[in-house]
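Researcher: Here's a chain I'd like modeled. Treat it as a single chain, no partners, no ligands.
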Amino acid sequence: MRDPDFTLSAGPTSATFRTLAALGSPITYHYDPAFIDAFRRTEGMVGELLRTSNEIILMQGEAVLGLEAAARSLVQPGTQVLNLVSGVFGKGMGYWLKDFGAELHELEVPYNESVDPGEVERYLDEHPEIELLTVVHSETPSGTLNDCARIGPIARAHGVVTLVDCVSSLGGIPFDADGWQLDVCVAGPQKCLGGPPGMSLMSVSEQAWAVIERNPAAPRASFLSLLDWREKWHAKGQFPYTPSVSDVHGVAAACEQALAEGLDNCIARHAAAAKACRAGVVQMGLQLWPRSEDITADCVTAIAVPAGLEHEQVRDHARRRYGVMLSSGQGAGNLVRIGHMGPTANGLYPEVGLMALGRTLADLGAAVRIGDGLEAALAVTSAQQESSDWQVTREEPRLWWPRGCRTTDSPQVRRRAAGDALSPARA
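Model: Modeled as a single isolated chain. Structure tokens:
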């Protein structure tokens, strides 16, 4: 089968020419001074995107590795954990926690809803034994969002450490690790940043390190060890194992582009794409999967499949007939998702997804108002482009080769390398 004309999935998503060129840069010795410089600058950029001054760890494996590493590091048999479940990934974390010996408490809601922070506060008031809270910020399979801006301070006030899955939200949805008082955050570069899917981007607070360092069950001398990264790389400048040189260059390029665009602009661009897509879905006569638009995640639009159809046949038809790759709900329900991530959170990509989905549903016999949906989406896109509330500065696509194995020689990176303040949010 030929490659799709448009990959509008929920990640990995498409990448810019600049990121692809960085992935093809020379593979150097990982202790070459140029690579060490690139690695440390990438750590700094990740911290800026997470809006944190906490310690940054770049683990060499897709974000599920970072999530498991964090959970294993924080949990030992008997640890009292409150797991917030609003979707597939939250439920999966609970299975891990039980396997690691945690005494598991769960607040679970249907997979088209989000967890009420008021309920979290009530539960922590009634269960002072809770030591750790785990939550998924953006439940990508459901297209929903949990309010970590409120949950983080509630947990901190109760002396509870937080582990936050922000894999799909970083770079596309507001996220403020320090401002929201979050302890361990795990993100992925292959979502809103449009980078390669081979790394875990993590931040760890001093409160979390205190828990990890006194945990005898925390991995040591292991690919999953956070302690190895702290004790070897951060303390001595020795990598625990050989990092993926190519992935580091790709992640660095993706981070650079987001910071050059401006993080707030990047977030606004994702919000605009999602708003246009949601408007089109509603006017097309379809139903959004999330219970309300207030809890939708701007990195993806989740759409309930009309009665009588299954998501597999819808996605297969759109891919085969129209060359558009959409995502399933990965077990969240009978739904399909149009992704708005990285380069695809832009221009007419939402309309392309709507056209492919609408025409597919019509081909399969569903009643759908394709024209109405596209008119609504285009009206939102047009209004957003004219708005003075957000203006994105875009570079023309160009091939790019890292000079001397550096990711770039931009003024922004020179300022970061010189140790200037990273952003107003971190000042």
